[in-house]
Amino acid sequence: MPFPNYRNKYTGEAIMRPEDTIEMRKRFGKFPKVSPPSGLIFCMKNGLPEKLRWRVPIRKVGKVMGDMFLVKKTKGNVGVLSNFGIGAPVVVSLAEEMISFGVKKIIILSWAGALQKNLVTGDLVINDSAIRDDGVSHHYIKSDERAYADVNLKTKIENELTKQNAKFYSGSTWTTDAPYRETKEEILKYQLENVQTVEMEIAGLFTLGQVRGVQVASIVIVADSLANLAWQPPQDMKRINQSFEIAYKTAIQVLNQE
After folding, report:
1. Phi/psi zone of residue 37: left (φ > 0), alpha (ψ -120 to 50 degrees), beta?
2. What are 164-195's pLDDT values in tens digits?
3. Beta-carbon neighbour count of residue 211 at 10 Å?
4. Are 197 and 127 in contact (CB under 8 A)?
5. The CATH number of the domain where 82 resides is what?
6. How far is CA 169 from the centre of its chain?
7. How much is the pTM?
8. Beta strand segments in 45-143, E
9. How many domains would you assign to the chain?
């Protein structure tokens, strides 16, 4: 177990509640005046909803730490959050509020680094689980190694991508709060365990979904690579942008299903 359970944070009653934060935001006019969408996309690529608005029309409905949009063709059933920052603390705090608002399903679209040598820039990976090397998830449930995606939501994403003839990989990811402390020893360990990617948010979000009874899944787009034990940044953004568009449209389609 990576963290000792000496404080039992996940068993006590929290003082601060997301419902109270929502009410505070409303008092100061900082919360959207709309009905909650049933499905929500956490988009880690800033500016993507605005960039694709001519192909996927959206309506900006306000700000909650970032920009919130509703996808017009879903008639308010699917929302998008973007431009809010990175890391598990930000994403999980924001997700807490959105779940209290009434959101039932969440798909996160995120950047990731490749850990396996067969993955290249722009590849799509659907995560079934996440190594909990973050700090947030251990305040919610006991410190087991992994958090898990909602199987039904993950399967719907894979089925939708298959319908589109879009190539994708499935497997686990490693969530860490410290990208500048990713060591060769860790990478070799996770390569042997067939962990596909590394990123900064997914374990926390999977854990929150489990605790709050909300369906959560993820689609990650490979950007850089650590697979050869040296950082290899992407050479251009073309395939990454194409894959984010595929992932975005897929998430909307899946979240708009009954």
Report:
1. beta
2. 999 999 999 999 999 999 999 999 999 999 99
3. 15
4. yes
5. 3.40.50.1580
6. 16
7. 0.94
8. 58-63, 67-71, 78-82, 105-114, 124-133
9. 1
